[in-house]
Amino acid sequence: MAKVEQRRGVSDEALREFFREMLLIRRFEEKVEERFRAGELPGFLHVAIGQEAVAVGVCRALADGDVIASTHRAHGHTLAKGTHPNELMAELYGKLEGCSHGYGGSMHLYDVERGNLGANAVVGGGLPAIVGAALAFKFRGEPRVAVAFFGDGATNIGTFHESLNLAQLWGVPAVFVCEDNHWAESTPESQHSPIRDLSKRAEAFGMKSMKVDGQDVEEVNKVALRALKHARDGKGPVFLLCETQRLVGHYIGDPQVYRDKDELHRLQETADPIELLREKLGLSDAEYEALEREVQDLVDASVDFAKAGTDPKPEDALKNVYA
Amino acid sequence: MPELSYREAVRDALSQAMRNDEDVFIMGEDIAEMGGSMGVTQGMLEEFGPDRVRNTPISEMAIVGSGIGAAMQGMRPVVEVMYEDFLTISMEQIVNQAAKHRYMSGGQLKVPLTIRTQGGAGWSPGAQHAQQVEAWFVGVPGLKVVFASTPSDVRGLLWSAIYDDNPVIFFEHRTLYGLKEEVPEEIEPIPIGQARVHREGEDVTVVATGRLVHEALAAAEDAEQQGVSVEVVDPRTLQPLDEDAIVASVKRTNRCVVAHEAVTRMGFGAEVAAVVQHQAFDWLDAPVERVGAKFTPLPFAPVMEDYVVPHSKDVLEAIMATVGRDGGS
User: Fold this and answer.
1) Do residues A71 and A55 make contact, with C-beta atoms less than 8 angstroms apart?
2) Pick from A43, A70, B227, B329: most CB atoms within 10 A?
3) What's the ipTM?
4) Which residues of B touch A117 (CB under 8 A)?
5) Are A135 and B106 within 8 A, CB to CB?
6) What is the pLDDT of residues A155-203, one digit of tens each?
7) In CATH, which superfamily holds the domain spanning A8-307?
């Protein structure tokens, strides 16, 4: 296990915990897909299969008090930021016990107590508020960092550029985590960006950028810790480019007619962050199966919890419009 | 009682809030050294420093959006969008983000953000610097909308907007900045959602906003000369709307005119007309008359601009139409 010996910074125990969490996200997403196809889940859903290492690697680097803004592909970030699978699943079932009490749904997952300021269904929509949250931390001299997740597609929208510019200009403690999965829905990066290295966009604002293999949770965690320290130490924001892979469609049911199937299968075989970590950790079959049972039980229980949850009254729709 | 201009009244509310509360700060384009394109924030940089009087890049999405983020952390930012025309650029952040965070989170979040902006015709800036777009925001649940027409109102309402726990779009009218009025020694917060009756009358109620409040008051004087007694009501806040005050007035006068500078079509006056016809139908002696801009972009040439936007003579015509139709004076 030469690879294990070479590791620095992340303990074996921590890595196993990361593994458990990534497996939880994977099994959760598979269950969501199953229940959606069974017709139990309203709306439409984007699962984060393939991108688990970014969510876990980054969120496990956060300190108490740090905040995140997420994207339409939010289940992984939400679980990794500490929301219980029960509360997440209940939200997907539209129950009052859900993390947004049935008002949000898959694309609007909030858990303010745990620092999740909301998933956003508008690409790039959450970035400016992360600058503002970071500005508030700076105003108050609090050692907190605000973190925005977004995809490569979001680097083409105005909020991205305005937010990075303002964050760097004001030196606020923010980290911009770009989950570069090379697809903006069905549009490949080659059709949406004239440059391949998106960190150049941050560098154009004078922002410090870091790049990491987003399929390697240990690397993501280590680099995220460095990025967060930089921001927390008052040295300014960081652009953290995570090279990742969406191993499924854009949404559940996406036939992916736009995607080369051989290439997708190759990625599923070679770039699955969970398989890569399993190999790195050298987990025995018994250890793996024990973890598998543990997370599967959690996921199954979350469905039971959600189904037993409370439906909002129709007129509850009139609440929470104003504070 | 001190006399303040509308401009000074805005500045006074901002300054007093910032003196009392470290959570209040202002940001926007050219608001620091320059004191804002309308001079509203002149002198504030010297008093409060560049952290709390923050010049921003020309980035309306980030100006509004970072205000949202700071507000969600419990601060009370007041952001300035230089012209209300530029609200279009920040529309996504206002409509999808500021207005909806509380709702989408099931009540977990508050967004106590004030977005100050100004507009209005009368000085020939052309089609992109003087529109009146307040009605667009009244249709967005989660937003409050204020449009103050006098110095005392703008001061008391801005204070309430800053201390409201919801996002407030706060409209000022460019041509009113020099208007003076005696104001209370101490700021008296004016509740959001409370209309002001500027002038009592018996024959017709004019519900007017912004500059048209003053046009309506002038029209009321003219109507008085012709024996028609006019009541002028300024809702001051468009959302929430003080329906009770408007309906009560119409039930006394039995006639109603709505007047604003924005285009008549789908304007705020249409909503007022609907409220009045529904809640005071049996009291109405005439159809509700609407006064607003003609359905064009704002033209440049002064003669055309003057033709497009409404003036007191247009309000007077509408007043006389309501009394003419029932054979009154």
Assistant:
1) no
2) A70
3) 0.95
4) 69, 72, 109
5) no
6) 999 999 999 999 999 999 999 999 999 999 999 999 999 999 999 999 9
7) Thiamin diphosphate (ThDP)-binding fold, Pyr/PP domains (3.40.50.970)
